[in-house]
Amino acid sequence: MAPEQTPHPVETYYRELADLLDAEREPDEQFLMNLQGEESDFARFNHNQVRQAGHVRQLEVEIDLLSGQRHAAGRLNVSGDLRVDWAALNQLLHGLRETRDALGEDPYLHYNTEPCDSYKQRCGELPTPEQAIKDIAAAGEGQDLVGILASGTVFRAFANHLGQRNWHAADSFNFDWSCFGDADQAVKARYAGARWRAQELRECMQQVIKLMALMQREPRAVKPGRYRVYLSPAALYELLSVLGTDGFDLKAHRCRTSPLLKLAHGERELSPSVTLTENNQRGFAPDFTSEGFAKPEQVTLIENGAFVASLNTARSASEYRETVNAGTAHPQNLELAAGQLPQDQALNVLGTGIYIGNLWYCNYSDRMDCRITGLTRFATFWVENGNIVAPVKVMRFDDSLYRILGENLIALTRERELVMDAGSYHCRSTASARLPGAIIDDLKLTL
Amino acid sequence: MLEDVSKRFLHLIRGIDRWSLRVVDTHQEGLSVRQDVIQPPRNLRSTGAMVTIYVDGASGYAATCDLSDRGLREAIAAAGNWAKACQGRGSDTVRENAGAPHTAHYRSPVAQGWNTWSLKQKLELLRHACRSLHIAPQIVDWEATLAYKRQHVLLSSSEGAWIEQEFFFLYPGMRATANEGTRTQNRTHGGAELGCQGGLEKLERVGYTREAQRVSEQALQLLAAPNSPSARMDTLIAPAQMVLQIHETIGHPLELDRILGDERNYAGASFVSPDMVGNYRYGSDVLNVTFDPTESEELAAYGYDDEGSRGESLSIIKDGILLRTLGGASSQQRCAVPGVASSRASDWNRPPIDRIGNLNVEPGDHGFDDMVAATEFGILLDTNRSWSIDDMRNKFQFGCEYGRMIRDGELAEVVRNPNYRGVSETFWRNLKMVGDETTYVISGTPYCGKGEPNQIIHVGHAAPSCLFSDVEVFGGA
């Protein structure tokens, strides 16, 4: 239930719309309704100057209109004022009824029939346009800074004909930037959260500036071969994001296209240090699915190197007779269990090799062997005897995760970092991950 | 509807000297039959507007899906606030003209509209294609798809621009997955890369019934095939892979906003610098590349870009020499190199940035058989399935669905998991032979991603089959 406070206008709109849909539905008709929206400021920087900046207000409603196992869904943008929107929504409902009548029964239609309300409203302290620009320009003074600030409120909500109501609204900001030296020698950082503090931003920037001093050294070109490396949490996030595409998807496993098929079948294994969990208790994503199912608190995907469970969306769960445990087949709140290596010992344990600050453009080179290629990017250094010697020029790797997180995984750090996804295709992402750094032996560099 | 919003806006914006308004209304439908089961159709409508206000050398934008007078007023206020906040802190100057002063219309040519077929007729076509894909028990997943999109855009400005464009897109496709144990191979035809502008008359491009059996047969062939060998060899690249080769190693490196550094934090910069324009040898002298928004069947055909610049066909690389970049009017103003009309926004909620557009390799004069016959040891590579390139758009590695060895001038055995890698700045200099019109296919992708905030947009790439010498090719594990 909603707490006693003045609701956000979008929440009021959502509840009124849900009630109206309930009132307007025909006998023997059911509905699922999802609302997604944001009120975000975006400020893009290049050379520590504003390149493009503005505000985006978007709100969209998706209605799935059901009659037994027949159904049809449609999505449209709404203004947030029912008097303005009702004509378009009513037209959508008529169109959906026509479409539904032209379709047969959907054998895999699956939605929650045991109402479970939820309410989450996270309020923050977000910067005004003037404050954001002033603080960033001041913190980055003298730097060749390039990046994006995204700041605002993200809304997600679900309602159905059974009276279920789920509301999720969260204020957040994510300043994702890099500072450049010569050519593509750069250091990347993120300052993300719900309460903007200029001092915290300055401290993050100081860390970047410290690393930038190392980037000024003459870069070293390394030859293709196998190298001992340290993968930062941000670098590991890039690898695990690729793995997230079909790696844990129930449908991909049953259609036998999952890159982890051999792990699930016991033909390959990962290091016993690898335990991966979708931790819905911790994340920033909504705790309900678009079919109204409550997400479990956590789903153990891989435990001590062995495959445990897939992520089952409602439709796949219905098709393959499993239990729903996810809203999407791609992890939204991924956690890799911490290891024993103190972060401040990472360079010593690396010894001589490459410290990889970030990876970039990772993709499968042999999906069924979980072999991934990609490139080093940002703050990547040659290390000798535990000391940073020089930045390393861009190198391509091409290796299997069965080796990287299998026999070649030496250690995971004790400390973990929260990596918030800065993605904003269509709308701002709510995905994040909590990951340690990793020491890897014999990573194959190819070009 | 767009006209109504734009006319109301004219009253609401009074008192502000320089502005532009882009109103966009998009309708998409997606149909799929998978494993002979009709999947829930997708039906999306996206409608909204972006206001941009220019004040004393700075600009700010506001996008809203509230198109009431109240919503537009709030957007004007928000854009004005950002413009003021950016005064004195804007990088480079903002564009002098917020849309050129003219009235214009553009519409995709459509012979047979989407609604001339009932939903039932379209689904019947897909059901038949889907059934035709399931030719053996090893085909464990199979699907036929058809997607439609109509996008209506009206751009107006304080300078008197009133540019209305209406685009119609069609994306027909098929997929078959073959499996045995933990070995799996996918084969696709169409879908993303065979998308085009036009109506249902373009369904012939995918030839559902005609091609379904071939798609599944090739999936089965791949399942039984050996891994691609690892060696340096000639590569004959088919149009369904040329799409990606052009896109990543010519298109993105030539985007002027990358060259200017805007994308360095995300999509990356470029190995190309402004001083290379007019003299840099990008490829061998048989490489000719054209930017062509007038190719009306191609995905990025348009009359005008989203800054109001008129689209025209222009040579980008002539006889291997780089002549111009892919930068719209704003970027050209920031950096005095020749560009094109390519400043585009993915939707109403994103500002225009430099995009690739329709970027095509012009056909040469060699038939497919001529190029096979000219290859002593090589590989035919078809249909992209994996892509990766560094942030300067130089070191690349691509994977294909289908490979076939060429030995002593003849097509030989099928091989699975073919990959190849190279370096953009030298790769095109090894272009040995360019296929003629008979090998030329209009393709593209709806999934070109870049920008902060992120934007995905459609781009077109038409190309013949092309033969490259001395390429590093390798297989899977």
Would you write up a description of this structure?
The complex is a heterodimer of chains A (447) and B (477). Chain A has 447 residues and is of the alpha+beta class. Helices cover 23% and strands 40% of the residues of chain A. Chain A has helices spanning 9-24, 82-102, 129-139, 198-215, 233-244, 250-254, 261-264, 314-319, 346-350, 401-407; strands at 30-46, 49-67, 70-77, 118-122, 144-160, 165-180, 186-193, 225-231, 276-279, 298-303, 306-307, 333-336, 353-366, 371-384, 387-391, 396-400, 409-420, 432-445. In chain A, strands 8, 9, 10, 11, 12, 13, 14, 15, 16, 17 and 18 form an eleven-stranded mixed β-sheet that branches. In chain A, strand 14 (371-384) and strand 15 (387-391) form a beta hairpin. The longest helix of chain A is centred in the first third of the chain and has 21 residues, at 82-102. Chain A is globular and about 75 Å long. The termini of chain A are far apart. By secondary structure, chain B is α+β, with helices and mostly antiparallel strands. Chain B has two domains: 2-224, PmbA/TldD fold (2-Layer Sandwich); 231-474, no CATH class. Chain B is built from nine helices and 24 strands. In chain B, the strands form five sheets. In chain B, strands 1, 2, 3, 4, 5, 6, 7, 8 and 9 form a nine-stranded mixed β-sheet that branches. In chain B, strands 10-17-18-20-24 form a five-stranded mixed beta barrel. Chain B has a four-stranded antiparallel β-sheet with strand order 13-12-11-16, with helices on one face. The longest helix of chain B has 18 residues, at 69-86. In chain B, 60% of the residues are buried. The model of chain B has no long low-confidence stretch (mean pLDDT 95). At the A-B interface, strand 1, strand 2, strand 3, helix 2 and helix 3 of A face strand 2, strand 3, strand 4, helix 2 and strand 8 of B. Strand 2 (49-67) of chain A pairs parallel with strand 4 (58-64) of chain B.
